[in-house]
Amino acid sequence: MAPEYALWGYLTDKADVYSFGVVTLEIVSGKNNSNYRPDDTCTCLLDWAFVLQQKGSLMELVDPNLGTEFNEKEAERMIKVALLCTNASSKLRPTMSAALRMLEGQDIIPEVISDPSIYGKDMRISPLRDHYQHMEMQSSIGSLAPNFSSDGAQVGSSSSSAQDLH
C-alpha cells in the first residue's frame, strides 16, 4: 500500500504505480512483500530490495528457483523499474505509461535516489512526514487541511451533492 494512502488516505494514480512496483518485486523474487523478512533490519521485501540496491546486489532479489534460466538484463530492468515505482515520494514515481516504456526498453531507466542520508534513518517515510508538516503549516496560515481519524478515514463536512455521486 502506498505510504501516502496508508498514512493519510490520499488515493491517486501514483498509489497504483506504487502497488505495481510492489507486485513487480514479488514476481521477480517469488516472495510476498508483507511476509518476507530476511533479517531483523528489514520489515518487508521492499526494504530488502533497498538494502540490496545500496550494496549493488540487486540480482540477489531474483527468485533462486529460476536457477540460470532467466534473462539477467530483463530481471535487472524489472527490479529498477519496481524501485522507481515504489519511491516514498509520489512525485518521483513514474506514470504507468512511463514504467511500461522502461520495462519494454523504450525509455532509459533513471537512477533511483538511494542515499539514505538524504532522508535520515527512516528514509521511506520522511518525505511523507515533510509533506504533512508542510500541510500543517499551510493550515495554520489559513488554508484548510483535510482531517483524518486514527483509522485513516477522512472526517468532517463534505460538499458532495447527490448529483456528484451518480
Give a structural overview.
It is globular, with a radius of gyration of 18 Å. It has 166 residues and is an all-alpha fold. The chain has helices at 3-8, 13-29, 45-55, 72-85, 96-103, 126-140, and strands spanning 147-148, 154-155. The longest helix has 17 residues, at 13-29. It has six helices and two strands.
Summarize the structure.
With 166 residues, this protein is mostly helical. It has helices at 3-8, 13-29, 45-55, 72-85, 96-103, 126-140; strands spanning 147-148, 154-155.
Keywords:
166 residues; mainly alpha; Transferase(Phosphotransferase), domain 1; 2 strands; disordered C terminus; 6 helices
Secondary structure layout:
Layout: H1 3-8, H2 13-29, H3 45-55, H4 72-85, H5 96-103, H6 126-140, E1 147-148, E2 154-155
Antiparallel strand pairs: 1-2
Helix pairs in contact: 2-4
Organism: Vitis rotundifolia (Muscadine grape)
Region (Disordered): 146-166
GO cellular component, one term: membrane
